[in-house]
C-alpha cells in the first residue's frame, strides 16, 4: 500500500501527548479485502461502550520497555477493559505515574487496561487499535496514544484517542478530500521485514488481525499520530 496524503488534525500540538492526537491517511489504492483483511466499524458521536464490552488491543511493539519482539514478529493482542474517566484520573496522581499540566484526561481520550494480568501496549504500538464488540460488530473505539512505563509492575492503564469524539471531523475530511490520483502512485515493494516469512517451519502460525480502520473505498485509514519532541 502506498501513501497519497496525510491529514493531521488542525488543533494537534506537540506540547501535549494527548489532545487531538489523530491523523487520517489516504492511500493511492483501495484496500483489497480477503479472509483476513476486512473493515472494522467507526463509531459515531452517539456510540456508547460500557466496561462490560469485550475489548482488545493489538500491535507489533516491544514486549516491555527493555524487551523487543522476536522473529517471526507475530501480531500480539490482549483483552482489556474500559475504565471511566474519574477512575482513570486517579491512576495518574501517584508517585509512580504522573502527567504534565498539558496532559489532562479530557473528553477526546479514554482509558483501558488490565492491571490484574499486567496487559499493556508498549513502545512501537502507538496508533494501534482498541477494538470492542458492540451488537455483534467490531468497532475501533480508541487509538493507542500514551501510557506509563511498560515495565512490571504496571501501575496505570493505557490512554487512547477516543474515535467517537472525532466522528464529525472524520466525516468532514472524508467528504472534502478528493480521490487519490492513482497514476501518481509509486511502485510498491515488499517490506524487508515481510520477506522470507514463508521460510519458517510449519509449526509457526501467523494470525493477521485488524490493526487499522478502513473508512471507505476512498481508502482513508485512521491512525493516531505520535510525534516525539527531540
Q: Report strand %.
A: 15-25%
CATH class: Mainly Beta
Output the CATH topology. Answer: Thrombin, subunit H
Spatial extent as radius of gyration: 18 Å
Query: Count of DSSP E strands?
Result: 10
Unreliable stretches: 193-219, 225-230
Helical content (DSSP H or I, runs of 4+): under 10%
Alpha-carbon distance between the two ends: 29 Å
What is the 3D shape? globular
Largest sheet: 6 strands, antiparallel, barrel
CATH superfamily: Trypsin-like serine proteases
Mean pLDDT: 77
Organism: Mus caroli
GO molecular function: serine-type endopeptidase activity
Protein name: Inactive serine protease 39 isoform X3
Domain Peptidase S1: 1-175
Written overview of the protein:
Pfam families: Trypsin. The protein has a single domain, classed as Thrombin, subunit H (Beta Barrel). It contains 2 helices and 10 strands. The strands form 2 sheets. It has a 6-stranded antiparallel barrel. Strands 1-2-10-9 form a 4-stranded antiparallel beta sheet, covered by helices on one side. 29% of the residues are buried.
Q: Which helices and strands occur, and which strands form pairs?
A:
Layout: E1 3-8, E2 23-27, E3 55-59, E4 76-83, H1 85-91, E5 109-113, E6 129-134, E7 137-146, E8 158-162, H2 167-176, E9 213-214, E10 220-223
Antiparallel strand pairs: 1-2, 2-10, 3-4, 3-6, 4-5, 5-8, 6-7, 7-8, 9-10
Descriptive keywords:
230 residues; 4-stranded antiparallel sheet; Thrombin, subunit H; 6-stranded antiparallel beta barrel; 7% helix; 2 helices
Quick summary:
The protein is mostly beta strands and 230 residues long. The protein has helices spanning 85-91, 167-176, and strands at 3-8, 23-27, 55-59, 76-83, 109-113, 129-134, 137-146, 158-162, 213-214, 220-223.
